From TrEMBL:
This is UvrABC system protein C. PROSITE patterns: GIY_YIG (PS50164), UVR (PS50151), UVRC (PS50165). It comes from Cellulomonas fulva. Residues 208-243 form the UVR domain. InterPro entries: GIY-YIG_endonuc, GIY-YIG_endonuc_sf, GIY-YIG_UvrC_Cho, Hlx-hairpin-Hlx_DNA-bd_motif, RuvA_2-like, UVR_dom, UVR_dom_sf, UvrABC_protein_C. Residues 479-509, 677-704 are annotated as: Disordered. The keyword Hydrolase applies. CDD domains: GIY-YIG_UvrC_Cho. Residues 16-95 form the GIY-YIG domain.
Amino acid sequence: MADPSTYRPAPGEIPDQPGVYRFRDPSGRVIYVGKAKSLRSRLNSYFQDVAGLHPRTQQMVTTASSVQWTVVGTEVEALALEYSWIKEFDPRFNVKYRDDKSYPYLAVTLADEFPRVQVMRGAKRPGTRYFGPYAHAWAIRETVDLLLRVFPVRTCSAGVFKRAHQQGRPCLLGYIDKCSAPCVGRISEDDHHRLAQDFCDFMAGDTSRFTRRLTQRMKEAAAELDYEQAARLRDDIATLQRATERNAVVLADGTDADVFALAGDELEAAVQVFHVRDGRIRGQRGWVVEKVEDLDDADLVEHLLQQVYGADGDADAGAVPREVLVPVLPHDVVQVQDWLAGLRGSRVQVRVPQRGDKRELAATVLKNAEHALMLHRTRRAGDLTSRSQALREIQEALGLESAPLRIECYDVSHNQGTYQSASMVVFEDGLARKSEYRLFNVRGPAGDGAADDTAAMHEVITRRFRRYLADRADSADLDLGFGGQDDDEPVSGPVEWTPTGGSTERPRRFAYPPNLVVVDGGPPQVAAAAAALAELGIDDVALCGLAKRLEEVWLPGDDYPVILQRSSEGLYLLQRLRDEAHRFAITAHRKRRSKGMTASVLDDVPGLGPARQKALLRRFGSVKRLRAASVEEIASVPGMGERTAAAVVAALASGEGATSAAPAAGQEVPTDLAVAVSAESAEPGPDARPEATAAAGPAGMLAT
């Protein structure tokens, strides 16, 4: 642990102006970001007697080795820059609001050629209009099923849409008039876009316009004695009314507000929000947060508003309502209101409801927050304690100076030496950090793979830490506040800020070393990893291996393993690391093997790359239809020329009589799209354990 006095800035060096500051650890990683009206008074508060600080603040200042700051013009700029840096660096000591579940949204993909209505979860995509969130996906589907009668927008997937277009026959929804069938040309692209926009306008609360329009058309049809059309329009009006009535009116018409409530204790807090649009509850959302900072409720509310509207504001300014009702006002409520007004483009009021319907609704939201916190405690009872205990047990068992807050685990997967793949998974504070997972294709000295598992492990560890050394050197070359006496640690001082609000630096993917490296295997794999680290001159990273047979932990050079109790939290954490690394590695291996066992007959055509192949299959649907096409028809495809079209015709003609090799066991290969080029590796290899068949997490990047 570092002594804060060793990196305290000199007296008078810190400016007495508003700004944003960040603490870094010895590796240069940002561990905390904060803002202040006066940088001098705020930063000086961190360098008082450590014993007088809050325990969480003590841990932060003793983990850090430097503090840097940026002076800005106004407190609103400080608020925006603080959120920008928290989003960019993801500091481990900043409070983070996590969704207590993945809420579904009703999404309309307006950026598509023919917009689609669907249920979506996860990160928001550009060009898509979102409504919600909803508590249940079935609530979205019931609403959509009602509205498709009036707004028959496309709801089918891309595969169904493409198949219907090729066959010239719509799906069932097209026959029962719940889809306008753009796949077969029943509606033009522009008309379908207008239909999707009307759907969005209705979901946004503009319901009376469509009711009035349908009522007028119903009266006109009745006057012309077209009673069948009038009856259909009457039913459409009733459908819209039922869809509108599903959202109960809780506030006066025209009220747009988000109502927040907060319930918690010293360690955790639960937040709930009701989204009220046009007086009706349009959605509900919840978060659970661990209080890693010494914050009061006002600070928590401010951080919450930053995260909610900062993320949504990038995609849709309409996400910020006219009124934000909170349980406690933020300390800098005027600056928060100005920031929200900048996102919305008009005035936004942040206040605490005092009386009437809004206060009653806030009480209802508070009950939901209390219930969510109770469920969270029930599901994760002891989780914080067990993670801390696991890290402490690993520290004691391996004789480490401090708890391994960042652990990386490596595994190699192959099938009799073919398609060798390796994985790197990362756990921080005992939790998986999937955004930092990485995959390696094992090359070997000759480019055809490593000789055995130990050689593969040696290559993977070498490549990972060679990149670490290179990225650390590149980061030091940039003027990022590095440049102490040994030129490899960050120092305290001011840093620049670009006018766009971003940082002048770019985080390096491999610039941060782990506290502990775990390899899947026994003494041979550990020895190979230790040799790789020694060759690179890295001696400050702990290393161990976890053998599968008896779950013993091996250290480099030891003749006997370290035995952890089977019921210990430390062993359980190491097992989770090993199993996650195995799952990630074998998923990548199987993907490479499946791709290598099939090949398209178009692969050998000169000048025909993946993009052109997709364009051809998109136009003709299959190789069988492509084989029947003429040179002129193929050349008419965008991106194709007559010479390439002639080469395609020649290649398909020469391969017409070829037969497909037998596919691997359990594989189905369409004979008109691909032929199997190899039946080897049909049987699963020794590391193809059935428990590792789950899909990989967020895609890790291929390391070079």
